[in-house]
Amino acid sequence: AGISQLPGALAEASEVQSKLESAGFACAQLQGAAATKEAVVRAVTSASVVHLATHGCPDGLFLAGDSDPEKPSLSTVDVYGLELSADLAILSACDTFKGELRTDGVVGISRAFLAAGASSVGVTLWKVDDRATKELMVHFYARFVAGEGAAAAMRGAMRAMIRAGCW
Question: How far apart are CA 154 and CA 136, in angstroms?
């Protein structure tokens, strides 16, 4: 059967790229068959902002260029092996904060990004709506590129969504 397409993910990635480029960030957008594990790993290891709009699960992310619906393309183990210098990594995918609960916290894809060197990681606790996520990210990046820190930008984006009646 495979994994369903996310119509909002491409639009989300394009709008995020536009906002980041307008603020002077260099961007590389990988979509469709070009979004393989190897290409994504190459891109994220040199990025200051990582934004991954895709399907997710507690153990990893499913990339469009790798189509095995049974296991994530970019696993928690893969990410632990990376050396990142990103100030921000946004995992715009379902269930990216879930994982195995241990005495020292939740072990999953979000923790792997922190361990690999990302300073801040944005994740979700549940299944997210594709269109609403795109809108949230547009609000978030408008604030982020205007100079708000990641936490303040997310708080403001969430409030904007509530005011607009999206939540």
Answer: 8
